[in-house]
C-alpha cells in the first residue's frame, strides 16, 4: 500500500546544460514514441528548463513545477492539438508552452511583446481556450466535447476528440465548476469524452479553505494511491451493451461499499484516484486507459506537490506561487527597489485602525488574503475575517447578508475578479441598498498579468448603479481618507478602487478624514481675470493626477493656464466643481484609469443636462477600446494614451495649437 500523504519525492534539479530529450521535442508529436524512461527523463529536463526560464522572467512558478509530469504524460498519451487540453487559470501552463512549440520564446514570458503568462488562443493551437480567471475549464471543456460530438454526427469524417480539463483544488471551490459538473452527466453523449483532471496540491495561492478542500484531503488520506491493477479492474470491462448498465451499477456499488462513494460519482462522474501525479509509470497507463475507455465524463484525481522538484519552492510557504526573477542556485528572489508602501497595504492599515474600535467591521476575501492585504486583518481579528475561497459571487452576497444585519463588511476583491460577481453586486447589494464596502484593488492596468487581470471596467459597471457611491484616490493619503469614509458610510453601498503597486511616497496621516460624499477638490488653479474663460481644466479621477500635474507644468511653461482638480468621486460627481471648471475654461479634460463610459459619462451627462457641453471643448480621456497587452504599467499607460504627453497633446489639439508643437 503506497502512502498518499505525499507523492514520491526526488527533489533536486539536474545540472543545467544540455537536455538530450527535451532538445528532441519541438512539438508533442516528437515525444510520443519515447519510452517510459525517456518520458521520465524528459520531465526532469522540462522541470529544469522551467526553473531556469522563470528565473529570468519571474512568474507563476510553483503551479507549473507541480504539473511537469502530468504535462509530459498528457502530451504523450493524447493527440494534441486535436485532443484539447484546457488548463484552468492557465498559470501552470509554462511546461506545456515549452513542449508545444514555444520553447524558443519561453524566456519572453510576461515580458513586453513576449509570451503571455497564461494560455491564450491566439498564441498557439495547443491552447484551445484562453484563461487567467479560474474555474472555467470544465464548462469550456464540456462545451467543446459536446461540439465535437455534434460535428461528428453531422460529418462522418470528423473524428471525435478527447477533451481534458485540468483544474486545481483551489479553483474547484468556485461555483462555476459545480455548475459544469452538474450539467456534464446530462449533457448528452458528447460528455463521454470529457476527462476532468483534478490537480490536488492542497494549495491555492494561500492554503486552501472550506469544506470542499477538507473533503479532498479526506479523500486523499483515506485511500491508497490507485494501483494499475485496481484500475485495470475498473476499466477492463468490455461487456455487451445489454449487460453494461447492470455491471456498471454493480461496480459503483462495490466501490461505494468498499471505500464510500465520492461526491464526484454522485454528480455522475467516473471517479478515478487518487493517483500520484509525479509518477510517470502510473500516469501514462492510466491516461491511456481513460483515453480508450467510454466511461466519461471521468474525474481523475491526481495528487501533486506545488513547487515540486525545486527545493526553494518546496520549502517556501507560498510554494513560489508567483516569483520575481531569482537566483537558481539559492532561490533568492530579486527584491523590488525599496519604495513607498503599496496602496494595498495603506488600505489594510487604515481598515485595521478602524476595526480596532469598531467590532461591526468584518473583512471578506475570495482566496486572496495577501494580495488584498487582508492577511493582516486575519492575523489580528480572525473571528471577523472570512476567506471564502475562489467564490467572488458568494463573497459579495455573504457580505450583503452581514450588512443586512447591521455589520460593516469590507469585501476586498480585485477589480477584474469582481466582474464575476456582478449580479450579486446589483441584485443582492445595490438594489437593496445594503452598505457593503467594496475595496477594489488592482484598478487600472496591472503590468505583467496583462489584459485578463486589468481592472478596466469597474467604473463602468458600478457608476451605472443607482445607489452606489464610487471613489478613486489620487494618492495614498486620499486612499486613507476613502477607507475611513467607507467605514462610516452606512446609508448604502460604497466602492473605492485603487491601483496595484506603490503609492507616491507621501507621509500618511495618523488617521483618515471622512470625506464629504460627492465633493472633489481643486489641486492647482489657474490664475484668471474674474468672469473670463480660458485655458484648460483637467479633472482627474484616481492616480492619473500625477500625470495631470506633469502635463499642467508643461502646458504652463507654454503660457497656457491650467486648472487641475481631483474628482475623488466618480459617483456622485461633484456637480458644482464640474460647472465651475466648464464655465471658466476653454477646454475641459477628464481622465480616468478605466474604459470609456465610466467616470467621464457621469461628467458628460451633467454637462449636457446643464447645456454647458455646448460651450466648452470637452475631451474625455480613458482607456482605448481594445485590450492592452502585458507590459510595464507605465508603458501600458503610454500605449493607452493616458500619460502626461498625451494629456498635453489632447489639450493642445483642443486649443487648436499648431501641430508638431513640443510636448511633455
Ligand atoms: C476568479 C478568480 N479568482 C481569483 C483568482 C486568483 N488566483 C489565481 S491562481 C489562484 C489559486 C488557484 O489554486 P489552484 O487551482 O489550486 O491552483 P494551484 O496554484 O494550486 O496549482 C487564485 C486564487 C483567479 N485567477 N480567478
Ligand atoms: C494567477 C493569478 O490570478 C494571481 O496569481 C495573480 O497573478 C495575482 O496578481 P497580483 O500579483 O497582482 O496579486
Ligand atoms: Mg492547488
Automatic annotation (TrEMBL):
HAMAP family: DXP_synth (MF_00315). The gene is dxs. Keywords: Isoprene biosynthesis, Magnesium, Metal-binding, Thiamine biosynthesis, Thiamine pyrophosphate, Transferase. InterPro entries: Dxylulose-5-P_synthase, THDP-binding, Transketo_C/PFOR_II, Transketolase-like_Pyr-bd, Transketolase_C, Transketolase_CS. Belongs to the transketolase family. DXPS subfamily. The keyword Zinc does not apply. This is 1-deoxy-D-xylulose-5-phosphate synthase. GO terms for molecular function: 1-deoxy-D-xylulose-5-phosphate synthase activity; magnesium ion binding; thiamine pyrophosphate binding. It holds the Pfam family Transket_pyr.
Amino acid at each position: 500500500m503506497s502512502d498518499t500523504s505525499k507523492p514520491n519525492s526526488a527533489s533536486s534539479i539536474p545540472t543545467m546544460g544540455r537536455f538530450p530529450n527535451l532538445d528532441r521535442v519541438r512539438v508533442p508529436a516528437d515525444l510520443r514514441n519515447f519510452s517510459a524512461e525517456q518520458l521520465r527523463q524528459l520531465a526532469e529536463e522540462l522541470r529544469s528548463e522551467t526553473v531556469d526560464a522563470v528565473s529570468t522572467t519571474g512568474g507563476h512558478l510553483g503551479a507549473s513545477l507541480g504539473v511537469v509530469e502530468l504535462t509530459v504524460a498528457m502530451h504523450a498519451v493524447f493527440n494534441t492539438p486535436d485532443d484539447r487540453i484546457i488548463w484552468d487559470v492557465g498559470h501552470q501552463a509554462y511546461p506545456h508552452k515549452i513542449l508545444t512549440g514555444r520553447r524558443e520564446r519561453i524566456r519572453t514570458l510576461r515580458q513586453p511583446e513576449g509570451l503571455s503568462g497564461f494560455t491564450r488562443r491566439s498564441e498557439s493551437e495547443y491552447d484551445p481556450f484562453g484563461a487567467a480567471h479560474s474555474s472555467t475549464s470544465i464548462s469550456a471543456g464540456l462545451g467543446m466535447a459536446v461540439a465535437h460530438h455534434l460535428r461528428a454526427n453531422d460529418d462522418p469524417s470528423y473524428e471525435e476528440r478527447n477533451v481534458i480539463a485540468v483544474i486545481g483544488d483551489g479553483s474547484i471551490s468556485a461555483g462555476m465548476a459545480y455548475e459544469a459538473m452538474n450539467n456534464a452527466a446530462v449533457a448528452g453523449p458528447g460528455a463521454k469524452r470529457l476527462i476532468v483532471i483534478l490537480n490536488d496540491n492542497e494549495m491555492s495561492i494561500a492554503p486552501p479553505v472550506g469544506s470542499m478542500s477538507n473533503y479532498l484531503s479526506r479523500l486523499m488520506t483515506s485511500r491508497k494511491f490507485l494501483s494499475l491493477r485496481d484500475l485495470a479492474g475498473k476499466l477492463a470491462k468490455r461487456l455487451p451493451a445489454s449487460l453494461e448498465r447492470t455491471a456498471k451499477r454493480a461496480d459503483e456499488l462495490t466501490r461505494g461499499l468498499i471505500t464510500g462513494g465520492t461526491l464526484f460519482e454522485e454528480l455522475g462522474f467516473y471517479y478515478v484516484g487518487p493517483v500520484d501525479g509525479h509518477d510517470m509509470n502510473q500516469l501514462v497507463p492510466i491516461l491511456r486507459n481513460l483515453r480508450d475507455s467510454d466511461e466519461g465524463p471521468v474525474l481523475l484525481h491526481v495528487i501533486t506537490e506545488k513547487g515540486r522538484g525545486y527545493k526553494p519552492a518546496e520549502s517556501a510557504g507560498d510554494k513560489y506561487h508567483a516569483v520575481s526573477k531569482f537566483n537558481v542556485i539559492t532561490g533568492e528572489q530579486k527584491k523590488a527597489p525599496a519604495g513607498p508602501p503599496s496602496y494595498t497595504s495603506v488600505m489594510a492599515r487604515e481598515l485595521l485602525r478602524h476595526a480596532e474600535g469598531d467590532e461591526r467591521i468584518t473583512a471578506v476575501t475570495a482566496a486572496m488574503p495577501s494580495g488584498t492585504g487582508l492577511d493582516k486583518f486575519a492575523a489580528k481579528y480572525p473571528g471577523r475575517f472570512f476567506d471564502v475561497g475562489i467564490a467572488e459571487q458568494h463573497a459579495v452576497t455573504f457580505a450583503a447578508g452581514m450588512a443586512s444585519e447591521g455589520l460593516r463588511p469590507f469585501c476586498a476583491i480585485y477589480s477584474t475578479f469582481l466582474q464575476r460577481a456582478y449580479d450579486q453586486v446589483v441584485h443582492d447589494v445595490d438594489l437593496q441598498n445594503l452598505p457593503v464596502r467594496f475595496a477594489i484593488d488592482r484598478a487600472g492596468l496591472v503590468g505583467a498579468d496583462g489584459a485578463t487581470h486589468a481592472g478596466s471596467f469597474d467604473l463602468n459597471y458600478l457608476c451605472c448603479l443607482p445607489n452606489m457611491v464610487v471613489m478613486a484616490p489620487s494618492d495614498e493619503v486620499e486612499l486613507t481618507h476613502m477607507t475611513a469614509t467607507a467605514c462610516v458610510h452606512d446609508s448604502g453601498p460604497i466602492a473605492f478602487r485603487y491601483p496595484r503597486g506603490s503609492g507616491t511616497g507621501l507621509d500618511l496621516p495618523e488617521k483618515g478624514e471622512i470625506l464629504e460624499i460627492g465633493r472633489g477638490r481643486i489641486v492647482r488653479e489657474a490664475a484668471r481675470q474674474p468672469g473670463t474663460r480660458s485655458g484648460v481644466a483637467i479633472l482627474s479621477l484616481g492616480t492619473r493626477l500625477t500625470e495631470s500635474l506633469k502635463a499642467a507644468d508643461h502646458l504652463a511653461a507654454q503660457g497656457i493656464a491650467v486648472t487641475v482638480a481631483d474628482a475623488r468621486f466618480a459617483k456622485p460627481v461633484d456637480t458644482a466643481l464640474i460647472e465651475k471648471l466648464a464655465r471658466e475654461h476653454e477646454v475641459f479634460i477628464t481622465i480616468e484609469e478605466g474604459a470609456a463610459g465610466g467616470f467621464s459619462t457621469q461628467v458628460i451627462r451633467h454637462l449636457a443636462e446643464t447645456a454647458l457641453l455646448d460651450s466648452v471643448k470637452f475631451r474625455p480621456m480613458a482607456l482605448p477600446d481594445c485590450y492592452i497587452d502585458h507590459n510595464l504599467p507605465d508603458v501600458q499607460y503610454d500605449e493607452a494614451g493616458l500619460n502626461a504627453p498625451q494629456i498635453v497633446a489632447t489639450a493642445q489639439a483642443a486649443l487648436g495649437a499648431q501641430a508638431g508643437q513640443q510636448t511633455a
